Amino acid sequence: MRKTTNMYLDKVKEECGVFGFFDMDGFDAARMTYYGLYALQHRGQESCGIAVNDNGIIRVHKGMGLVNEVFDSENIQELKGTMAVGHVRYSAFSDFQREDCQPLVSRYIKGSLTIAHNGNLTNAYELRHKLEHEGAIFQSSSNAEVIMHLAARARTKTHSIEEAMLKVLKKLEGAFSLVIMSPRKLIGIRDPKGFRPLCLGKLKNSYILASETAALDVIKAEFIRDVEPGEMVIINQEGLRSIKYADETTYSHCVFEYIYFARPDSVIDGVSVYAARVQAGKLLAKAHPVEADIVVGVPDSGLNFAVGYAQASGIPYEEGLIKNRYTGRTFIKPTQDERAISVNIKLNVLKNNIEGKRVILIDDSIVRGTTCANLIKMLKDAGATQIHMRIASPPFMWPCYFGTDIPSRDELIAVNYSLEQIRQKIGADSLGYLPLEDIKNIGLRKDRGYCDACFSGKYSVNKLPNGNQKPSKTQEEIYDNPRRDKKDFKIIKN
Amino acid sequence: MRKTTNMYLDKVKEECGVFGFFDMDGFDAARMTYYGLYALQHRGQESCGIAVNDNGIIRVHKGMGLVNEVFDSENIQELKGTMAVGHVRYSAFSDFQREDCQPLVSRYIKGSLTIAHNGNLTNAYELRHKLEHEGAIFQSSSNAEVIMHLAARARTKTHSIEEAMLKVLKKLEGAFSLVIMSPRKLIGIRDPKGFRPLCLGKLKNSYILASETAALDVIKAEFIRDVEPGEMVIINQEGLRSIKYADETTYSHCVFEYIYFARPDSVIDGVSVYAARVQAGKLLAKAHPVEADIVVGVPDSGLNFAVGYAQASGIPYEEGLIKNRYTGRTFIKPTQDERAISVNIKLNVLKNNIEGKRVILIDDSIVRGTTCANLIKMLKDAGATQIHMRIASPPFMWPCYFGTDIPSRDELIAVNYSLEQIRQKIGADSLGYLPLEDIKNIGLRKDRGYCDACFSGKYSVNKLPNGNQKPSKTQEEIYDNPRRDKKDFKIIKN
Amino acid sequence: MRKTTNMYLDKVKEECGVFGFFDMDGFDAARMTYYGLYALQHRGQESCGIAVNDNGIIRVHKGMGLVNEVFDSENIQELKGTMAVGHVRYSAFSDFQREDCQPLVSRYIKGSLTIAHNGNLTNAYELRHKLEHEGAIFQSSSNAEVIMHLAARARTKTHSIEEAMLKVLKKLEGAFSLVIMSPRKLIGIRDPKGFRPLCLGKLKNSYILASETAALDVIKAEFIRDVEPGEMVIINQEGLRSIKYADETTYSHCVFEYIYFARPDSVIDGVSVYAARVQAGKLLAKAHPVEADIVVGVPDSGLNFAVGYAQASGIPYEEGLIKNRYTGRTFIKPTQDERAISVNIKLNVLKNNIEGKRVILIDDSIVRGTTCANLIKMLKDAGATQIHMRIASPPFMWPCYFGTDIPSRDELIAVNYSLEQIRQKIGADSLGYLPLEDIKNIGLRKDRGYCDACFSGKYSVNKLPNGNQKPSKTQEEIYDNPRRDKKDFKIIKN
Amino acid sequence: MRKTTNMYLDKVKEECGVFGFFDMDGFDAARMTYYGLYALQHRGQESCGIAVNDNGIIRVHKGMGLVNEVFDSENIQELKGTMAVGHVRYSAFSDFQREDCQPLVSRYIKGSLTIAHNGNLTNAYELRHKLEHEGAIFQSSSNAEVIMHLAARARTKTHSIEEAMLKVLKKLEGAFSLVIMSPRKLIGIRDPKGFRPLCLGKLKNSYILASETAALDVIKAEFIRDVEPGEMVIINQEGLRSIKYADETTYSHCVFEYIYFARPDSVIDGVSVYAARVQAGKLLAKAHPVEADIVVGVPDSGLNFAVGYAQASGIPYEEGLIKNRYTGRTFIKPTQDERAISVNIKLNVLKNNIEGKRVILIDDSIVRGTTCANLIKMLKDAGATQIHMRIASPPFMWPCYFGTDIPSRDELIAVNYSLEQIRQKIGADSLGYLPLEDIKNIGLRKDRGYCDACFSGKYSVNKLPNGNQKPSKTQEEIYDNPRRDKKDFKIIKN
């Protein structure tokens, strides 16, 4: 039976994928959206939903679970309609509730309005507080509901949904990539800094909006271009229009999309995710070279970097860890006594390739350090003579307020330990992170700005949410400073 | 998998049961509510839910299905809290959606607000329309959400939820029995005409609100009194207070609660449902006597009336139809060829009791006439020599706007056929309905008014919803008038 | 998820219903069987199954749960075939396993063989032991598998399945009503004493076998006759043949089928179950008259008897207890603290009918006495001034070895306490059981013998299973003998 | 609801994994088996089961689905016991039935017997036929049930299960790796030719039997050795004993285990699967060199070979196809119109790596050719200028009678088309298979024989099942013979 849900209605960190389809050719919009969400499943596995518009009648199906768990041929068939909006969601909030599933569908003064949101508003609390003072009620804890309320109120004083949204956009701060469906229009909006991706595609005469290009590929749609930061695109029967709603935009694309979050086969804001990862691997090899026999990536997240590291270093790339393809969420967890098993379940060592070798082990990041320590032990047990750990990103040190789920600072190993302490804790023979300054060199466009605040502490917004203050020292000043003081990291309440 | 839902967001006819528990003694409020809903299950089998208040934190679990399908020991255990609100619901609206499940829980200016509603607002459309013009968004099609919006707005200008509700109540028209939970109070409200029941009980020092007394019995709570029409009762740690919010009230208790809807073991507004049914049977015997061998009730709805008919007529009461105790909702329906089976599945004739007998067959009402015709055929096939059909209520002729599900007038046999035509269609040897004037004599309190509009066409409200007009002729003028004209019934658009 | 099953493979007490359909007219045999099982659901709610024969190809669907839980329109549609065998089962064995679901389908020397069994073999253990010594393997704990093995072995030395079964029948002892399906025949067999019912019906030219006539009624089939004790009926394309395989038969129809187990609308071995119950009620009134105001039956099992008691005594029959129609198996059980609730959940008192009254309360039997005590307390709490408990059967004192589930003797109240002690324990003002000698007078055929061993201790078989011995004293000698000695009841190991 | 099953009871081709655990240290045998099965999941995804032995009491839980679907913490906890047998199964037989789930548990003369089987008996039909003539009944279509019957019969004439099995083994022909559990022993048996793998491990003092070493790794058990072809190992409280039951053994290890079926991290009969694959890639590079820009493997099956091809050819290894990690079985299949989508759903092209490149594409085998053609089209659409298809095994041409699922010969592209025709059909610029003679050089032990009959037509058994005859010409004689005649392939009925 479904789990009891908890109406905390507080702020939630969430990672999501969005998709929109405007049919002009007789495609089945719901099915196209289904395939699109399937390709975006990596962006959120907790819940998903599709809403369709059938001449003004909105049908919606949402649920907890993976796309292929929530949808079946029967319910997808009932979703008849010529426009569709889809959403996949992951929430770091343990008491995620069914009410939070998106797309959010509401009835308001001008009929129906459907919203799918990816990102995180930094002023959600203030907006919500103000709305509540005006008598608004909230049934979920999602940012989408805040935007929905603002849109409905703005719509009473404007002549179109675009106009209403322009009013709303003036009030929103932080990260948001939105797909919105009104009775006759499909609208894509990206925040002025472009934290989260959103792209535009075309299949015959039909338009598609998607978080990543991989979702265009799956339905064989052509990639047209990214929705620009600060842009609203409006699709209706007449075609596509664009409104640049932000006066000036200093881009802040999330670098973690390239490092970890996005699919390697996606191209985001003109940059191939795969190529960026291979390049990061190469830079890592240059920054932290070491004599060794083989380069091994941690599946799946470390593999692309390992390819780059091997190419730059000339040390052979080998598979050293095999992933069990059948890991599901309902797996029975090993007990405390069976702890040794817990890593082996998902990854096994390819002993023949490891035995007697000096191994360079590559992963995308270290969070708490536990998994990393287990893997290193596993490889050493299998006969590796040395393990040189290389991490394809700088140390995680600061919270993300823009939609990436990073654990509380108390749990981040890099916040609490020095480089040497970390090396000892994970049991590596050497340890090297990608230098912060190399982030910009992984192939990202030079004419754009990026957000690396989780590594650097340099936030591109004026005000952090919930009264949090920006760090007074930079990452460089703090990290591995021998006189480093714990309190330097404690400036920010998390 | 869950069915796709359809966001029509239109008006819905619904029958419901509500329950509230305010713990003062250390009872498990959620479990008490579970048992209470279980006893109210007959009032709605489509969805149910329980919300609890745990020092201001609201937890809620809702779902489609019966109480024992939606709740299990695991999820009921998670519903820790000292106040609880429960709801069961039936909806005549085929595209009932998950969002319509109650209790409705929202976050607003003063924390959380939970509403469970039984009844039907006759001005829901107007209220909603006005709210939408002010920028409100609606995520369900329930009346409860309209009330929620009004309450949230009123609360911004008042000092307490009671004050806010007093403002709201001035705007509501039609039928409503409400159980409301604010951060610290449990509130019961009944509309000024008292269409739907609501009673008050006590278990040690804890208070209970429930649609029917049977829900008090199940948890061994003591019945205190009915919530009065036009009364609001407020329960908090200090105890119970009452506010009579309506200046004058002309009662309009729903007679169909006594005839069919309520449990026989409930006592509503001082009248035992069982006793009212036995009395209706007696009046029916007096109004339509006939020489026969046995009196047989249609299980389960006709049995109590048959007891009364037998007592008044002196003709022996016998069981003639046996009900299959294992009928579930997922039953595979007989095909057209197997039509004969469809009645037999639920009811079988007790041949020995019927063969060679003149049978008086009693049921509570005739809607379309099909079931009735099938039963009569079954009994005749089993050897009954005569069937005298007796109906313990007047003919159904008008829509209910107050929360009882009556099919559209096109489908009502009494709207479309004369008494003699109906008799012929169902194949009875004689047919008699309870006379309209006898309704008041089934034991109902003489000092109260009742709503029998579905039979009489006499609506106690000033204005019918959706522009419907009151019938210009009375039931007496129309029904069985030899010059009866079809158009007399067509005044009201349905 | 499905429960882990426990391969005890021990003897199991089980109550069952069987059904067979041989199509000659183009009916859908599986659907007809589905409806038939539905009408037999009261005979077993734990598991059910249907096997069909489609020109020699056997298809089968079985599962744990009610008929409408295990079957849906999809799987019933896959069960194409012209012959069908169905089974419903209740097992007193807590570790009932999926392998025990019937019908049992096997492949053997002559193709497929399907068996559905109702009853209990008293020599199952010996037969099984002998088969195991010959190298047989057993995958379930059912009697049906023993019969299957015997049939397969006998078939290697005979020319037809009938001949083989005649050999097998010589070896079987105890109670068995069988429906067997070979590649081209449908066979019905009843044990020589006729413990369990089995009847024969016809629908157009198609034949039906069923445990009770109510299963014929549901599909509008005509009742032809009961399969006689000691008879085998063979149905194939040529029609019906009968073999009387037992030389002499001293009938032992189970009286508890009439008292409790069968549906009231069934007619078993020429006797209407309903009429037998009304008659038992009348005899009870004569045996234990008492001055009182009303007669109340415990729903549903006591209602028919109460009708008879009222008729014979002239004291008015009234409803006093209302049953909740929505009791399901997954109900959350009240905790120890909520014990008072546990009875109320299923039954509620109709206070108005009970208050101030002297009540004669009728039920079919008393097993442990707990339910009875709770009901009496409930009625007294509701204001009953006196409760006179009347039981429509003699006290349960001995085990049933023929397929009725009776708890171990340690738990039977009548084994452990005298009449007066029982009266005190249940809190009744007086207590009366149906006298043992009246059992034969409830309308049973005078030319037949009946098995009342659970009341009388008089077993009609020569040898009890598992080395149990017959009681040395009769019920009359033991029960309520003032010098009654506990050890008198302990002769039989249970 | 569960699907209706079809009792064909015919021969079934099946691929399986087996596991056994004999606890001496207080481990939880069921949990260890759960983790073991989890590591063997790739060997069968249709059903799984675990049986445990708790001092002679057998408990079993089986079901359709993946290991983490069938088992949860609740049912695994109920599986208390000190010995356990597990099984995962894939069946090519579409009407796979629940009765076929293994381990098969039976009760026989000496208590319980549990069997888990991997492989395929070539004389199963004859054995079964003979057993049926002796009166045996079969409830499933599995080879395991045949072995169970033989064991039970042999046991009546012998003094121990080992002796009984020695008698049985004389009768079995074909491929079988067995794990058997008697009341006090755990037994592992491998057929004399060693078609299917089976290995022995130890965890502290506890023994493990498993299809692959990866299942030892997951529970951190030590690999001791492979069970030898023609060996029976018996584990009881005293420890391990071995019986070599076959006089002479000419090994026939299945080469397809190395090419496709086994996990790369397993070591089978002394050969690392991963190393064998890399070596096959190298040999392929030598046999079919070509000028190109990159080497790309088809995920996941072609990746290891691609590594080897790249190493041997010096052409860079690149990722070119990205696999969606979230493919589940319940995926909604693209319609005919959406055909283009069906490949993209699981694999997407990494355009940046492919565009303008001459690509060597590597996969393990070609069956029907459809997938291959789609992939080549996808890569060409993405801008690949040439595609050189390389297959790391010889063409599939003959049926496997030993437990590998190969489609019927009618569907095999290599049976029906010449090399050049296949190249054209799949749209490759060149095509090369691993030469048949290179199979022995992929690292397999020179002192052992291998079965490559699916490629060569050279069967190592004397007699093929079901009257099939061995091919009269060798693969070399037939394949790509310009005068090749279709009928050469049609000798064997399939």
Structure description:
The structure is a homotetramer of 494-residue chains. By secondary structure, the first copy, chain A, is α+β, with helices and mostly antiparallel strands. The first copy, chain A, has 2 domains: 7-250, Aminohydrolase, N-terminal nucleophile (Ntn) domain (Glutamine Phosphoribosylpyrophosphate, subunit 1, domain 1, 4-Layer Sandwich), CATH 3.60.20; 272-446, Rossmann fold, CATH 3.40.50.2020. In chain A, the strands form 6 sheets. Chain A has a 7-stranded antiparallel sheet. In chain A, strands 6-7-8-9-13-14 form a 6-stranded antiparallel sheet, covered by helices on one side. The radius of gyration of chain A is 23 Å and the shape is globular. The interface between A and D is large, with 57 and 58 residues. Strand 4 (57-64) of chain A pairs antiparallel with strand 1 (5-6) of chain B, so a sheet runs across the interface.
Concise synopsis of the structure shown:
The structure is a homotetramer of 494-residue chains. The first copy, chain A, is 27% helix and 26% strand.
